[in-house]
Amino acid sequence: MKVQYFKDTDTLYIEFRSVEIVESRDLDEDTVIDLDAQGNICAMTMEHAEGRANVPHFTFEEIAA
Q: Quick check: 44 and 14 in contact, CB under 8 A?
């Protein structure tokens, strides 16, 4: 998984899996999801991310099963 934040455009890009994207769908005016050939979500792009996702306070935590 890869998370990128582009401060100059206030865009957040989250790549869940690095596979070929065959379709992109608008979820709303500022959110796009990318799908693979099986319809699985591979990535998401969010515009105006700082206010919508609290980007400066991003954390990641892996929980053991």
A: yes
Q: Do residues 30 and 9 lie in contact, with contact meaning Cβ atoms separated by under 8 Å?
A: no
The pair of three-digit structure tokens given for residue 38, joined into one six-digit string: 């099986």
Strands (E), 1-65: 2-6, 11-15, 23-28, 31-35, 41-47
Whether the per-residue pLDDT at 39 is higher than 80: the answer is: yes
- The length of the chain is 65
% the chain with pLDDT above 90? 65
- Cα–Cα distance between 62 and 55 in angstroms, integer? 19
Separation CA 56–CA 24 (nearest Å): 26
